[in-house]
Write a structure and sequence with these properties.
The protein folds into 2 domains: 73 residues, D-amino Acid Aminotransferase, Chain A, domain 1 (2-Layer Sandwich), CATH 3.30.470; 118 residues, ATP-grasp fold, B domain (D-amino Acid Aminotransferase, Chain A, domain 1). Helices cover 32% and strands 24% of the residues. It contains 7 helices and 11 strands. The strands form 5 sheets. It has a 3-stranded antiparallel sheet with strand order 3-10-8. It has a two-stranded antiparallel sheet with strand order 1-2. A two-stranded antiparallel sheet has the order 4-5. The mean pLDDT is 93.
Length: 205
Amino acid sequence: MTGASVRLAEAVAYTGAGTVEYLYDEERAEFYFIEMNTRIQVEHPVTEMVYGRDLVGEQLKVASGLPLSFTQEELVPRGHAIEVRINAENAANGFMPSPGRITRFDMPAGPFVRVDSGFVTNSVVSPYYDSMIGKVIVWAEDRDRAIARLDRALHELTVEGVVTTAPFVKAIIDTEEFRKGTYHTTWLEGWMAEQERQGHGVCDG
């Protein structure tokens, strides 16, 4: 996939940060091109934490005409990182936006826990722009430990004044499918419908 992505970028003389997305067929051991996003991705902190590189800094260097500070051969993945988005939305009401003033915003902290956000206590979430108020990213030696660290971080996160997707995310990471990595592209809809049938609601796990 890396080689294909490099060849694609070279074919169009692309310079800058970008993300090429594929679908992978495990049975056939083949991958299929979906799209290329010619920009830094919302999920770039996952790559930064696994590879220990500042992608935004590198993007600015390239835009200034400077070379990258590393080669592909120097990139060695380490551990496991997970990122979740915290949106000002009500998952129990069809993910209806929840604009308003944030009356309290306590971020999680600790080793290998990162929060990217432009909001603080008393910030106002506008109804006119994207509802994301922050991203929580964690890193650990393996997936199980990363999930445990994420679970702790989400329990430390406190947002008051607006409804957020944090309880919904907590419920998701507690599912067996998420922890075992057996979810698929239509799994979420089925899981939400089952929660409703059992009378739990989508935020109750």
